């Protein structure tokens, strides 16, 4: 009888210990879940992100600098207007001459968020000195022509990979390494265009 009583007491002590161990096991499992979540977050941080920005024009931007920007581009309006063609959106056109090569692309129309203005968007990568210089030089331009086709503004983006790639859902997209950058416009065109991770031009 005493032996039976001792065995019952031992079993009850062991069962209490096993109950006390359960929370420890759950904590270990929970920390494992947290580690998995943390590793997923690290992967997400490395994946390409899309950045949206709006280029805002305000009254302070009017004046000499903006007027000079429009005036300096006037001479190129005739050339760029020839490349406005709805049937050739995102089609790269190459113009080769004796010592130059021009790669031009009409990206389509982007609408100002003020719902009043819209602009034809054209990219141009021009290489000159081919056959004359040991290392030919290039120039990358981003041109905007107003909807009346009588005013143009051109931004020099220096490198061809800085030029925008396409317009989708009224957003102008650039690719910067693994990051896709999308911008919109509000209130008109600015004297200097500033694009996240690319800079101001």
Can you put this structure into words, describing what you see?
The chain is of the alpha+beta class. The chain has helices spanning 2-46, 64-73, 77-81; strands at residues 50-56, 93-96, 100-111, 118-128, 137-146, 152-156, 166-168, 171-176, 179-186, 194-195, 199-200. A hairpin with a 3-residue loop joins strand 2 and strand 3 (100-111). The longest helix is centred in the first third of the chain and has 45 residues, at 2-46. It is globular. Residues 10-47 have low confidence and may be disordered.
List the uncertain runs. Answer: 10-47
Q: Mean pLDDT, nearest integer? A: 77
Reading side by side through the largest sheet, how are the strands ordered?
2-3-4-5-6
Radius of gyration: 31 Å
Estimated share of beta-strand residues: 25-35%
Distance between the termini: 96 Å
H/E element string?
Answer: HEHHEEEEEEEEEE
Class by SSE composition = alpha+beta
**Count of separate DSSP helical elements:** 3
Overall geometric form: globular
Strand elements, count = 11
Portion in helices: 25-40%
Q: Report the sheet with the most strands, covering strand number, pairing sense and barrel closure.
A: 5 strands, antiparallel
């Amino acid at each position: 009888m005493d032996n039976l009583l001792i065995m019952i007491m031992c079993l009850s002590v062991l069962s209490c210990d096993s109950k006390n161990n359960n929370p420890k096991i759950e904590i270990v499992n929970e920390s494992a879940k947290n580690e998995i979540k943390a590793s997923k977050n690290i992967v997400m941080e490395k994946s390409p992100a899309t950045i949206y920005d709006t280029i805002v024009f305000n009254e302070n931007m009017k004046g000499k600098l903006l007027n000079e920007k429009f005036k300096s581009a006037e001479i190129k309006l005739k050339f760029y207007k020839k490349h406005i063609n709805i049937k050739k959106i995102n089609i790269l056109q190459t113009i080769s001459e004796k010592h130059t090569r021009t790669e031009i692309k009409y990206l389509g129309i982007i609408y100002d968020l003020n719902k009043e203005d819209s602009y034809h968007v054209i990219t141009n990568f021009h290489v000159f000195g081919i056959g004359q210089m040991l290392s030919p030089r290039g120039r990358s331009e981003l041109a905007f022509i107003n909807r009346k086709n009588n005013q143009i503004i051109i931004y020099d983006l220096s490198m061809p990979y800085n030029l925008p790639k396409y317009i989708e859902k009224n957003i102008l997209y650039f690719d910067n390494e693994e990051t896709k950058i999308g911008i919109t416009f509000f209130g008109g065109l600015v004297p200097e265009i500033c694009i996240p991770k690319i800079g101001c031009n």
